[in-house]
Amino acid sequence: MPLMDHLRELRNRLTIAVLSILIGTVVGWIIYPEAFDFIKQPYVDGIQPLLERRGFNAELVLSGGVGSAFSFRLKLSLAIGLVVSSPLWMWQIWAFILPALHRNERRWAALLAATGAPLFAGGVTVGYLVLPKGIEVLISFAPDSVNVLLSLGDYLNFVIRTVLVFGVAAQIPLVVVMLNRLGLVSAKQLVSARPWTIIGIFIFAAIATPSTDPLTMLFLAVPMTVLYLISEIIAKLTDRKRRKTVGTDVSDDQAAPIDGPSELDRPSDLRD
Fold it and tell me: Which residues fall in a compositionally biased region of kind Basic and acidic residues (predicted)?
């Protein structure tokens, strides 16, 4: 395809992607009350124990000027639009890249995409479930004699950042499997690096989690560790299949010589 045709196709696909996001944003604007209640629920669940146990008030407030209410609703609607329209605009990106891939690459890319979506959704779900505990811990640092007033904008950023951290962290198996398929990392290297990798996972979980309590950190670190161990098993199976196909008892130069036939192709009596 000529360059101008590629550019026209890119323009058309970007137009479709942007329109899908705009339509999703309109949908988010319509369902804003229900979406806001859903987003606010972790806050309600997180502060309710404090309200009963410590007897002080904690409220969500809308600050920032006259247009802050419109800005907040538009921001939440846009976030909903990105999520609702994600299958369509992601497909536009995928459809633009797909013709450039070989058949085997397409198969693996489709498999990784089909696996990555459930993993991301699972990570986001876990992040949403641990939000109440994180909010409870963070608000508990407030003195008993004061009321806690939180900005709606800051709270929305907090929720989005938390669920995204959990969703991205759930992609560890895909990254490890992809590196193994590219031949950059072997299963033996993954096993030898396991202790340091697990330590790194817990350090990442301690930094990335919104609260300072160990329970929230474990909610992120333990699934990441389990997923890493699963990726080790997949890498071992992949390496085993690769060894059966290529062979491991000879070097690459001996198996695929640059000049002349390989020593493996010569009869044993002629070698003597």
Answer: 263-272
Q: Does the pLDDT at position 140 exceed 60?
A: yes
- Please indicate, yes or no, whether residues 183 and 131 belong to a single structural domain of this protein: no
User: Are 122 and 242 in a shared domain?
Assistant: no
What is the model's pTM? 0.66
Task: Kindly state whether residue 254 falls inside one of the protein's structural domains.
Answer: no
pLDDT of residue 220: 79
- Residue ranges in the chain assigned as alpha helix (H): 3-30, 32-54, 68-84, 86-97, 103-139, 152-169, 172-181, 187-192, 194-208, 214-246, 252-255, 268-271
Closest CA to 239 of 185, 158, 160, 163: 185
How many domains would you assign to the chain?
2
CA nearest 238: which of 99, 111, 100, 102? 111
- For residue 225, CA distances in Å to 171, 186, 234 come to 12, 18, 14
179 vs 185: CA distance, rounded Å = 6
Domain of residue 66, residue span: 1-152
Backbone angles phi, psi at 239, to 5 degrees: -65, -40
**pLDDT at residue 55, as a whole number:** 63
Regarding whether 183 and 123 lie in a shared domain, the answer is: no
The predicted model gives 6-35 an average pLDDT of 89
Per residue in 51-75, pLDDT (tens digit) is: 666 666 666 777 767 778 888 889 8
